[in-house]
Structures are given as structure tokens and as C-alpha cells.
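Q: I'm building a small set of examples for a reading group on sequence design. Run inverse folding on the following structure and report the sequence directly after it, with nothing in between.
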């Protein structure tokens, strides 16, 4: 495990898993929200965002967290492991609101990018029905049979998996 793409709904724990895996694997960690948005929440033009990801995945070891379905293929074709944070809608909604309470709004430099508005709530609330099938199809098309795919459906399972990975890499 040297090149890890982490995907899943907002509030599912992607950034936490990325930080932990980066530490365990001694790999660079990129939170795509930090690459896509500047401090005023302006978006990086999509062609520059895709080019940046191509540079990132050319490295020998990396952990990248974020969805960005339009550029997901770049990460899936380059990774050796896909981690899908496949938590329930309730858990994801809890995740975005508890993160807001813990960290406040704005950019925190550790992968935490909080900006809760109706669009974010709607995205999280409808992720399993609307976005998850699209993400699963891309994983099947671009990573299945070539990369290990790990589905983590709750926080307890996630912590147990991280302990297992840490033990294997100690």
C-alpha cells in the first residue's frame, strides 16, 4: 500500500483516515478540498485541478482524500488502494455538524474545510442515493481488479482497519 485514494461522502471521515494513513505509511497527504479552494472559497479552474492531481499521483507514495467525481479517474488509475468511506447518511450528517462544532468554519490546515450551507447538507443527505452509485461505477471501471478496494461502513470498523494497517507496517 503506497498510493491510496480515499473517497466518500462529506462527514464520513476521509480526512481523518488520510492523516492516519499518511502517518502510518510515511506518505504525503493531500486533502483535495485544500487544493481546490483558496482561503476565500474560490475554486481552482478544473483544468489546473486535474493537472495538479496528475502531478500528485506521479509521486512514489501518496494518500489523497476527496471526491471530485469529475477527476476521480486520475486517482483511481494511479492508486494501488481505494478506501471508500461508506458510512450511513445519518453518520455523515453527524460528521459534518460535529466537525463544525469541534473546529468551527473555515480552513484549518489539516484537511478540515468547513462550510456548511444548504448545498452541502443536501449533497450529504442525498450522497448514498445519487453520488455513491457513480463513485462505485468509477471504482469498478478504473480500479477494480488492479487496486485493493476497502469499504469502511462505520467509525469502529475504520479504527479497527487502521490498527490492522498500522500493525502490518510497523
Amino acid at each position: 500500500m503506497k498510493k491510496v485514494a480515499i473517497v466518500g461522502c462529506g462527514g464520513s471521515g476521509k480526512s481523518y483516515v488520510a492523516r492516519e494513513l499518511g502517518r502510518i505509511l510515511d506518505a504525503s497527504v493531500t486533502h483535495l478540498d485544500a487544493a481546490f479552494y483558496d482561503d476565500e472559497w474560490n475554486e481552482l479552474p478544473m483544468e489546473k485541478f486535474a493537472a495538479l492531481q496528475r502531478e500528485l499521483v506521479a509521486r512514489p507514495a501518496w494518500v489523497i482524500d476527496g471526491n471530485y467525481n469529475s477527476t476521480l479517474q486520475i486517482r483511481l488509475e494511479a492508486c494501488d488502494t481505494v478506501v471508500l468511506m461508506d458510512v450511513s447518511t445519518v453518520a455523515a450528517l453527524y460528521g459534518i455538524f460535529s466537525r463544525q462544532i469541534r473546529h468551527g468554519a473555515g480552513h484549518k490546515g489539516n484537511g478540515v474545510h468547513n462550510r456548511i450551507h444548504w448545498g452541502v447538507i443536501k449533497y450529504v443527505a442525498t450522497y448514498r442515493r445519487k453520488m455513491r452509485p457513480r463513485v462505485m461505477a468509477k471504482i469498478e471501471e478504473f480500479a477494480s481488479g488492479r487496486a485493493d478496494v476497502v469499504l469502511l461502513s462505520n467509525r469502529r470498523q475504520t479504527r479497527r482497519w487502521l490498527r490492522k494497517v498500522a500493525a502490518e507496517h510497523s
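The CA atoms of residues 47 and 71 lie 10 Å apart.
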